[in-house]
Write a structure and sequence with these properties.
By secondary structure, this protein is mainly beta. It has no helices and eleven strands. The N and C termini lie far apart (40 Å). The model has no long low-confidence stretch (mean pLDDT 95).
Amino acid sequence: QVQLVESGGGLVQPGGSLRLSCVASGVVFKILTMGWYRQAPGKERELVATITSDNYTNYANSVKGRFTISRDGAKKTVYLHMSSLKLEDTAIYYCNLEDFVGSTYWGQGTQVTVSS
């Protein structure tokens, strides 16, 4: 069973920065993509950023230029560097993993709150 454990969330002021981490453990078949999604209160879960096994990245328009996704394949870890944070970035951030056999896994989520 694959488990994803996120860390790094917290409270930050507008304009500040945070780095989220997500570590995959368990029996992981070859990873296709890892990524981050978020869900704000009253809203649907939305894509933030993804990164493939060959480092192709994809970002939501709302975070382009402010967030950077990266990964360490050997450690089965994905990171999300968030800067110039805005109030509207407040959400629960979920880690996601998709493997080459079509399985999808989710972490439990980590809260990011941007507030002055």
